[in-house]
């Protein structure tokens, strides 16, 4: 029977162990770069986070629900943004030729929905003074479209698509555009 030298056995054990350690080191180095970049972006003027799927599910539940409602898999999402818009305006106008003229009391109205608030009063001189406020959340999701599917598994990337959703049911998105620059 042939005896294998101890050094060959040690080399056979050490090479896979060193490769495993190197791989773990590279993963940790990339994770450190990602978290450092996130911290720098939060402290600086930019606000860009690079999150893992698990971190995204935990921290951004509302955006996750929008992605699910669009029928997209989180693994295919390239990035997502969310913008909240709020419009406030004070209204001052005079009612002319109205049926209300000649009333001595002040008439007020208030209308409130989850996305719109309107309130105001009409005084005895037919001057209306009011306020309106509109709030909307716009979510944008950029995702990869798979090239082909085999046995339910998706492969390749046919293209990149943009999906934009408004939380306000009365609002419509009249234009959306996605431009990617090559570096």
What does this structure look like?
By secondary structure, the chain is of the alpha+beta class. It folds into 2 domains: 1-50; 54-183, no CATH class. 30% of the residues lie in helices and 35% in strands. The chain has 3 helices and 7 strands; from the N terminus they run αααβββββββ. Strands 1, 2, 3, 4 and 7 form a 5-stranded antiparallel beta sheet that branches. Strand 5 and strand 6 form a beta hairpin.
Distinctive features:
183 residues, alpha+beta, 2 domains, two-stranded antiparallel ribbon
Topology:
Elements: H1 6-43, H2 53-59, H3 61-69, E1 77-94, E2 107-112, E3 116-122, E4 127-145, E5 148-150, E6 153-155, E7 159-166
Antiparallel strand pairs: 1-4, 2-3, 3-4, 4-7, 5-6
Number of domains: 2
Overall mean pLDDT stands at: 78
Report the portion of residues in β strands: 25-35%
Spatial separation of the terminal alpha carbons = 62 Å
């Amino acid at each position: 029977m042939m005896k294998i030298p101890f050094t060959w056995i040690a080399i056979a054990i050490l090479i896979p162990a060193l490769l495993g350690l190197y791989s773990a080191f590279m993963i940790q180095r990339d994770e450190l770069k990602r978290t450092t970049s996130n911290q720098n972006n939060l402290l600086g003027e930019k606000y860009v986070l690079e999150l893992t799927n698990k971190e995204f599910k935990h921290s951004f539940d509302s955006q996750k629900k929008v992605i699910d409602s669009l029928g997209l898999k989180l693994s295919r999402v390239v990035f997502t943004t969310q913008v909240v818009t709020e419009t406030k305006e004070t209204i001052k106008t005079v009612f002319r030729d109205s049926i209300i003229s000649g009333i001595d009391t002040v008439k007020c109205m208030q209308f409130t929905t989850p996305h719109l608030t309107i309130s105001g009063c009409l005084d005895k001189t037919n001057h209306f003074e009011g306020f309106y406020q509109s709030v909307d959340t716009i979510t944008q999701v950029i995702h990869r479209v798979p090239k082909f599917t085999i046995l339910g598994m998706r492969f390749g990337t046919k293209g990149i698509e943009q999906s934009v959703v408004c939380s306000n049911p009365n609002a419509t998105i009249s234009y959306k555009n996605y431009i990617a620059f090559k570096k």
